[in-house]
Fold this sequence. Notes:
By secondary structure, the chain is an alpha/beta fold. The chain has helices at 19-31, 46-55, 69-83, 106-134, 154-175, 201-206, 212-225, 232-244, 256-266, 272-279; strands at residues 10-13, 34-39, 60-63, 88-91, 137-141, 180-185, 189-190, 230-231, 251-253. The radius of gyration is 19 Å and the shape is globular.
Amino acid sequence: MTSAPEPGSVVLVTGASSGIGLAAAVAAAQAGFTVVATVRDLDRAGVLAEATTAAGVEVDVRRLDVTDAESVTGCVDGVLATYGRLDALVNNAGAAHVSTLEIDSMDAIRATLEVNFFGVVAMSRAAMPHLRASGGRLVTVSSVGGIVGQPFNEAYCAAKFAVEGFMESLAPVAATVGVRVSVVEPGAVASSFVANAGLDLPTTLAAAGPYATALAGYAGHVAASFASPQSSEDAAAVVVATLLAANPAFRVQTSDTARSFVSVKLADLTGHAVQGLMSTWVVPPPAPTAV
């Protein structure tokens, strides 16, 4: 069961320059929230401006780098200075990263954790006193990769696993002070998220050494997965529904495909089912047979 937000309710959405974050900012404004939509680079806010104009809504666009402590504090303090309240935080900012242990660098692994995990923690920590004051919501966009570890996504999945563990542990504690905590788990979504990972596949394959065959198989699987992705708008609708739910679930998938995928892990006590499934992701399709 959902309802409209209380008049004046303020939601802060991170990573709103594209994809689910952009769509969630628009949808939240349409639902009646006062929306503060943040982007790391204000020069990339043009698409968001176009989307809000097309939807006939307004959002307050501000710069935020979730990996910078001063930026985090300044953003949250600025929202309180302008509106006097914060009713919800949607942690959406993140970055894809495709590689594997032997060919990745420690700096790249740390950077992936910094934006996808520590950025979420930093924003949540800064927002929490104000969410306590409003009896608010803390919603984090995770991933099916926060449940199922996926080939060539070790660092990314580690970050999302960490997010889910952190929020699952925080949720009962936060509930004692009136804050509801949820994670939203999309699967393949039509957005620029994967493209923004900056993966040059031919170059990466050439440098993959003994992992080249497995990486080619993984690349083929991803291409097939994104042949019929969920729209950003549909995924964002689940985020906003979670904000508005009278009794939100802790873990919410954004599609039947995502629900089916994570159910394999959640019912897999030994890990055999997941490992069997993931092994199919690293086998290249057979070469076409000449006629």
